[in-house]
Amino acid sequence: MSAQKVLKLSDLKQDAAVRVVIDDIPIAVVLDSNGEVHAIGDTCTHGDISLSDGFVEGETLECWAHGSAFSLRTGRPLNLPAYEPVPVYEVTIDGDDILIDPHVTKEVN
């Protein structure tokens, strides 16, 4: 499987998340305050809530329902009640196009 075009960079707003679904895999695509695009699993591991409805602050995406913040770089929760990470996906920017392969996750330390 190869990366698929999911959005245009110009469709993203800074410090906001957009939900996309590729091959039935929900992904939150985020443009952080540094202008970097991230893609993480869109489902909170604590409450089965869409993370893209949450709040972006710095390099985190916070679940609106229970307040768990997830690192956009590692997918790890930074506070309770979530304790399981979400997947992090490689993002490729080609001109104005954002491409993601939902079957390839980043190796994070």
UniProtKB/TrEMBL annotation:
What superkingdom does the record give? Answer: Bacteria
GO molecular function, a single term: 2 iron, 2 sulfur cluster binding
Q: Where is the Rieske domain?
A: 4-100
List the PROSITE patterns: RIESKE
Tell me the CDD domains matching this sequence. Answer: Rieske_RO_ferredoxin
Question: Which chain positions lie within coiled-coil regions?
Answer: none
**Which InterPro entries does this entry report, sorted A to Z?**
Rieske_2Fe-2S, Rieske_2Fe-2S_sf
- What keywords are assigned to this protein? 2Fe-2S, Iron, Iron-sulfur, Metal-binding
| SUPFAM superfamilies from the UniProt entry | ISP domain
Q: Which PANTHER family would you find in this protein's record?
A: 3-PHENYLPROPIONATE_CINNAMIC ACID DIOXYGENASE FERREDOXIN SUBUNIT, FERREDOXIN-RELATED
Name this polypeptide is given: Non-heme iron oxygenase ferredoxin subunit
